[in-house]
Amino acid sequence: MTTGIPLLGETLALAAALSWSAGVILFRKLGDESPPVAVNLFKNAVTVVLLALTLPLAGTPFVPDRPASDWLVLVVSGLLGISLADTLFFMALNRLGAGLVAVVDTLYAPAVIGLSVLFLGERLGAQVLVGAVLILGAILVGAADRPAPGTTRRRIVEGAILGAVAIFCMAAGIVMAKGVLETAPLLWAAEVRMAAGTAGLLPLLLFARWRRGIAALFRPSRRWALAVPASVLGAYLSMTAWLGGFKFTLVSVAAVLNQLSTIFIFLLAAVFLREPMTPRRTLAVAMAVAGALLVAFRGP
């Protein structure tokens, strides 16, 4: 889908990467006090409310004239890419930390690109491929750090498996929704996906184990100083921009630019989590910027 705004899809994809990265830093701190299911449900609920308030301001109806198949696709996409994928991602984040989870996150762009080529028939030019190689190479260079002290091999393996499954579910969820995003109102699609992702977690309230953690986070407390901005940045803003990137440019291009979130996480972690910005990470940032420019300015 084309618009009158040059590089709109690419800009939104980059904005999604940056806002998600900021959210991940906050979610990492929040994960020390709250279980992954509670964090996921809280950020989903905040986003559903914010999107509901945004829809009328944008002149978008809550129930547009769309075929039932569009609703079904978005619901399944939300269950797969939000209920399941985000919960698994937060579980991986708690086990691996921001640095190691970034290693697993490198699966994201290849997964989305592979699925888009297989199921959407997208073709990749040489410039996009070179840019993708630079970005993925940058992530591998920057993420090759030693595990944090006290992290066991078992937790690393568990986190890597959980993270890989989460990334694949996220990739499948967005690729299946690409056809709907081409013509559907962006904010409506985001609201349906997020509402479905929220509803998919509600059955967990039937279990006391999950209910206690969820109730503790939903109760106003000092945790909201992290939970609310994390939800706004890491869900409301990032998901809207993320879907917009896929709506206004090729899935493969948006995925490669989204992958820059790993580099942004490194930079933000250095500032806010006091993680060192080593020469290896500096090289990774330079490689990633070069790759992003190649992808963004690929030409027609």
Explain what the structure shows.
This protein is mainly α. It has one domain (8-296). It is built from twelve helices and no strands. The longest helix is centred in the first third of the chain and has 38 residues, at 68-105. The mean pLDDT is 86.
What keywords describe this structure?
300 residues
Helix content: over 70%
How many helical elements? 12
**Cα gyration radius (Å):** 18 Å
Biggest sheet, in brief? none
Structural class: mainly alpha
Count of domain modules? 1
Give me the count of strands.
Answer: 0
Give the overall pLDDT as a whole number.
86
What is the helix/strand order? HHHHHHHHHHHH
Principal-axes geometry comes out as: globular
Kindly estimate the percentage of residues that lie in beta strands according to DSSP: under 5%
Query: First CA to last CA: what distance?
Result: 13 Å
The parts where pLDDT drops under 50 for at least 5 residues are none
SSE order and pairing:
Layout: H1 8-30, H2 36-57, H3 68-105, H4 108-120, H5 126-143, H6 153-183, H7 186-199, H8 208-218, H9 224-248, H10 251-258, H11 261-272, H12 279-296
Please provide a brief summary of the model.
The chain has 300 residues and is mainly alpha-helical. It has twelve helices and no strands. α2 packs across α3 and α3 packs antiparallel against α6.
